[in-house]
Amino acid sequence: MGMVRKRITLRDLQSLCGSLAFCAKAIPAVRAFSRRIYLAVSHAKKPHHYVKITEGMYQYLLVLELFLDKFNGISYMLDIDWTSNSVLQLFTDSAGGSTQGCGCYFQGKWAFLKWPVEWSGTEVLKDISYLEMIPIALSVYLWGNLF
């Protein structure tokens, strides 16, 4: 399926971000679809500037539309007794770029993982959603039995 629009103004993209943030209050899983849109917002400086809608972004929005259409209201990951990261003292972060990596901190212990050399120049380093999952998985591997 081809794209309908090739570009969107920063103002309209910011409006979409606001709508996604509002939806995420009621349906937290929507946050998973917001990252790529927020990243696109960072590419323009003034409200009237245009941002290119890439095929990847378009496909991302189609998946979001499908999710919203089919979502049945059940969230398996949500828990009434959800523990925040500040209480658990678990923090993770990632940075793109071939010389970067990810880190995690848990109750005074920390770990760092440098991205493999094989990832240099590949699409892997451009997918921040994927890169952000790595330190989470690393934390579970290292300290999962403690939380």
UniProtKB/TrEMBL annotation:
Origin superkingdom: Eukaryota
Check the record and name the InterPro entries matching this protein. Answer: Hepadnavirus_pol/RT
Give the matching PANTHER family: REVERSE TRANSCRIPTASE DOMAIN-CONTAINING PROTEIN
Record protein name field: Uncharacterized protein
